Amino acid sequence: MKVVWKLEKATVRDVYEALLAKRTIAYTTVMTMMKILEDKGYLKKQRVERAYLYRPARPRQQVVGAMVRDFVDRVFDGAAGGLLVQLARDGRLSKAERQHIRRVIEEMDE
User: Which residues contact 8 (CB under 8 A, 6 or more apart)?
Assistant: First the structure.
């Protein structure tokens, strides 16, 4: 999704080449993942000559939110607190991020 968001529209080959520049990946893996993202409603495709051109189907924030909810449901049985605890324990949250989370939680309590 990040590649498609960055390019705004992309073929499977565009995404494959962008990912290949960072790591080894099979073309068929990229094709499969893009099909899954399309099936989930995150991407939409349009036939252009001999290839499909993919675009984001929804705004980035909606897609990220849906992906996070899906991840929390699958990995943490729907308990978002488990994800936050794991991130905090791993040291992945900066002081600024922790403060931001506190503010968001406090605003929700008001």
Answer: 55, 56
CA distance 93 to 71: 18
**89: Cβ–Cβ under 8 A, 6 or more apart, which residues?**
none
Domain 2-56 has CATH 2.10.70.10: no
Q: What is the pTM of this model?
A: 0.75
Full pLDDT tens readout for the chain, 110 residues: 999 999 999 999 999 999 999 999 999 999 999 999 999 999 999 999 999 999 999 999 999 999 999 999 999 999 988 888 888 888 888 889 889 988 998 998 87
Domain 60-109's class?
A: mainly alpha
